[in-house]
Amino acid sequence: MLTVRQITDGVNAALVRLYPDRTVYVEALPEKFARPSFFIRPEGRTITTLNRDNVQVQQMVTVQCIDTVDDHYAASTDRLYEVADRLTAALLQRGAIVCGGRKLTAERVDVSRALDVADVTISMLYEDARPADPETLPLIESVQTTTKPKEG
C-alpha cells in the first residue's frame, strides 16, 4: 500500500519538474523561508474496503504556493493564480504524480487564496492492496496457576 510519504514525494517531484528554481518544503516551513516557494502538507486520508483483498484510498495533499511580497506584505493575485492554474493543469494530467512505482492522477483540485499564498488541495482516489496483518504475538492457548489456601 502506498504511504503518505511516497505520495508527498511524488507531488514534490511534480513541483520540481514544473518549477526547478523554487524551493519545496515538506516537513515544516522554517521561520525564514525562501520566496517564491512551495510547502507540501498532507491532509486527510480515507480508506474504504472494496473486497477481501483490495481497498480504495482517497488521499488529499495541499500545496501552498508562496509568492513574493511587497513592502506592505501584499502578493500579486495574478502571479498566485498563474502558478495555481499551471499546477492544477499539470496535476490533472493522467499519471502526473509518480509514487511507489505507480502513476496517480488528481481526481479533484481545489484552489483558495489567503494573503501571500494560494492553496492547491489535490485529491487522489486509487485502489490498493489491503495492508498485510501486522505482526503480533501468538494468542495465549492456556494458563496454569497454582494457589495455596491461607491457613489461619
Short description:
This protein has 152 residues and is of the alpha+beta class. It has two helices and seven strands, in the order αβββαββββ.
CATH C-level class: Alpha Beta
Report helical residue fraction.
Answer: 10-25%
Distance between the termini: 63 Å
User: Can you give the mean pLDDT?
Assistant: 90
User: What's the order of the H and E elements?
Assistant: HEEEHEEEE
Major sheet summary line: 5 strands, mixed
The total number of structural domains is 1
Structural class: alpha+beta
Strand content: 35-45%
Description:
This protein has about 150 residues and is an alpha+beta fold. The protein has one domain: STM4215-like, CATH 3.30.2000.10. About 20% of the residues lie in helices and about 40% in strands. It contains 2 helices and 7 strands; from the N terminus they run H-E-E-E-H-E-E-E-E. It has helices at about 5-20, 75-90; strands spanning about 25, 35-50, 55-65, 95-100, 100-105, 105-115, 115-130. The protein has a 5-stranded mixed sheet, with helices on one face. Strands 4-5 form a two-stranded antiparallel ribbon. Strand 6 and strand 7 (about 115-130) form a beta hairpin. The longest helix has 15 residues, at about 5-20. The radius of gyration is 23 Å and the shape is elongated. The relative contact order is 0.20. The model has no long low-confidence stretch (mean pLDDT about 90).
